[in-house]
Amino acid sequence: MGKDKLRKFAENLTFDNMVQPAFDEMFRRDHPLKGRWGADFFGRIRIGNSTDNTSSPGNAMGEVSGADNGVSNIPLVLELGCGKGEYTVGLGAANQAQQDTTNKVQQDTTNKVQQGGGGKNIHGKNIHGKNFHDISSPGKNVLDTTSSGKNFLGIDIKGARMWRGAKTAGAMGLANVGFLRTRIEFINSFFAPGEVSEIWITFPDPQLKKGREKKRLTSPVFLAYYARFLASDGVIHLKTDSRELHDYTLRVIEANSLPLHAASADVYNDGDLQAANPELTTVQTTYERRFLAEGKPITYLRFGLGDRTQFEMVYDE
Ligand SMILES: C[S@@+](CC[C@H](N)C(=O)[O-])C[C@H]1O[C@@H](n2cnc3c(N)ncnc32)[C@H](O)[C@@H]1O
Question: Residue 286: CB within 6 Å of ligand 1?
Fold first, then answer.
């Protein structure tokens, strides 16, 4: 094995934002993080020595806390076969920036109300009270920095590739981004029912050889795994250069009457889709850049699993 790979493997062991479970921690059993990713993993990522913990969905900048802090209910987004984790980091950074802006607007609003209001009651509530609720959105606490935040977890078996994503996320101070090194076949050991809100499958091996349908990450075999932890309104994104895999997945969707939310045979020439989903072209993966350089169209599907738990198998014609 090359020196560079060994160096990355060694550094991976020092990263707070990467989990590399031992075989006996997850083979035919639940991993301790199952159902606990928000509180026990993202809630404990250290991203430097800053004491400002207001902007992180993980809520643990510079300190480790055993407390849940309300982070266990934050939606969890997976990227399967993430490689260097471009979607995990890209979506995590965008979500973090959105959170920071929301928090700043909320903080400015709170400050203005407090300065201008002189502590008087607004609509019967004391604005200096710790439990001040935003009057424009009932039930939402303006000081709650975790709402609408998301956590992002890249999954792959290749540690040297994920090193890149984990290193970048750490350098960017993203406490809402992490990586899990495991085979996707073991995925049900890691996530509890409803724990995952979205799955991104980015440029997976299309497994086009005869008889390999069950190995495809959008085959009914894998959809049945995902159905065990995807929230009922959860979605699956498939981005691929393989027209065959795109068409196969469409046939799986049709055979199982699954809700199809978006489909494109050429994302970079689909203005409407891009306008509504800028992350489809602003984030590019390593493999994607290679395919684009070869002039290949990039396809996209977004679909749900409805309330299905069992799926009709689909084979190549
Ligand atoms: C073609 S690469 C795409 C990587 C990345 N998503 C990209 O677009 O650049 C497929 C990735 O899936 C990973 N992979 C394939 N089968 C896997 C499995 N069963 N479990 C975990 N990772 C797997 C490989 O290690 C590889 O990094």
Answer: yes
Looking at the domain assignment, is residue 104 inside a domain? Answer: no
Per-residue pLDDT tens for 171-212? 999 999 999 999 999 999 999 999 999 999 999 999 999 999
Separation between Cα atoms, residue 187 and residue 197, nearest integer Å: 15
Q: Residue 124: what pLDDT?
A: 31
For residue 156, the CA-to-ligand 1 centroid distance in Å is 6
**Does the residue 132 lie in any domain?**
no
Please tell me the distance between residue 183's alpha carbon and the centre of ligand 1 in angstroms.
10
Q: Specify the 3-state DSSP secondary structure of 94.
A: helix
Q: Which of 205, 241, 266, 270 is catalytic?
A: 205
* Residue identifier of the C-alpha nearest atom 20 of ligand 1: 183
What is the count of structural domains for the chain? 1
User: Residue 184 CA: which ligand 1 atom is closest?
Assistant: 20
| Mean pLDDT computed over 250-256 | 98
Question: CA-to-CA distance for 108 and 253, rounded, in angstroms?
Answer: 46
69-104 confidence digits (pLDDT tens): 445 679 999 999 999 999 999 999 999 999 988 888
Asked if residue 39 is part of any domain, the answer here is: yes
Residue 60's CATH number: 3.40.50.150
Residue 205 annotated in active site: yes
pTM, full prediction: 0.84
Question: Which is it for the CA torsion 24, 203, 291, 93, positive or negative?
Answer: negative
CA of 79 to the centre of ligand 1 (A): 10
**Taking a C-beta distance cutoff of 8 angstroms, is the pair 91, 169 a contact?**
no
Q: Find the domain containing 87 and state its range.
A: 3-96+154-303
